[in-house]
Amino acid sequence: MVTEELKENPEKSLEEITREKVLVGLNMIKPGIEWKKEFIDRLILLELNSKINRDSRMVEAGLVSVLNEMALRRLGKITDEHLSETRVAARIHDVGKSGPPEADKEQQLAVTQLFATEKLKREHKDIKVEKAVREIVFKGNEYGANLMLARLMTCGVDISMPMQSFWESHARWGAEIIKKDCGGLSENTKLIAILHHVDKGPEFNFSDTLIEEIDEEVLQGALTIGQLEDYVDAFRQRAIIAVDQYDAYIHRSGMTHELAIATLKKKIEGSKTFSKDALLRFIIQVMEDMGKEKIFDDMVKQL
User: Fold this and answer.
1) In whole angstroms, what is the distance from residue 85 CA to residue 79 CA?
2) In the chain, how many domains are there?
3) Which superkingdom is the protein from (predicted)?
C-alpha cells in the first residue's frame, strides 16, 4: 500500500506517507486526540523497520472480534467509547519495542531491529544480548554487530542480560513512553495498553486495578444477573492480555489454535497474578470456542 502511494505521490517521502498512514489509522479509531510528534515518530520507525505495528493491528482485530462475540452471547455489552479506547490501546501497546524513552532515533532503530529480527527464536531466550548480536544477528559482520551493540549500550540496554530479559523490557519502556507522551489519552486507555502482559503491573506504579482478583463467585453472579459490563475495565484489561499472548503463539510461534489455547491456559495457571482469576479464564474459554478464523476475521485482510 505504501509503495503504491509513493508512485502516486512522488513528491512525498516514505516517512511522510507513513506518518499520514499512522495518524489516519489512529484518528479513524478515535478522532480528536493530539498526538505528540515524538510518539508518532516511534510508531513510524516501527512501521518502516519491522512488523511490530502490523502485529499490533492484528491484536486489535482479535480484540474487536472477542468483544463482539461477548456482545452476541449477551455476556457483556461494551459501548462505542469503550471499544474505541480498547482499539487505540491495542494499536499502541508495543511502542516500547522502539526502546527506552530517552533513546534517540539511531538507538531506537537498533532496539527495533533487535526485536524485529527473525533470526532469533524462543530457543535463544537464555543467550546474552551481546552473543545473540555477534553470533546470530550479525554473524560474520563485526562492524554491524559493534554498531548495534554501541547504540544499545548508549541508551541503557545491558548487553549482558539474556534475550528473554531484553524482550520483556519493552513492557517497562512502553509504560514510561505512554505515560510521558500520551497525555491526550484517558487513564483507562493508557492502563490497557501498559498492562498487556501477565504479571506486569505494580512495578509501573500506575494502578492496582488490574490485579484485583475476580473469583468464580463474582463472575457467576455477574453472568446470572447480566451485569458483566459492570466489570468492563477489568474485562478489557484481561482481554488484551489474552489476545496479545494468543496472537504471539499463532503468528510468531506457528502454533495451532488448540495448542495456543492450551499453552495460554498453562501460562495463566502459573501466573502470580491471574492463576485464580475467573474472568481471564472465562475470556480464554470464549476464545477457545470461537476458533482462530473467528478471532482473526475479515478485519485482518485490511492490515
Assistant:
1) 10
2) 1
3) Bacteria
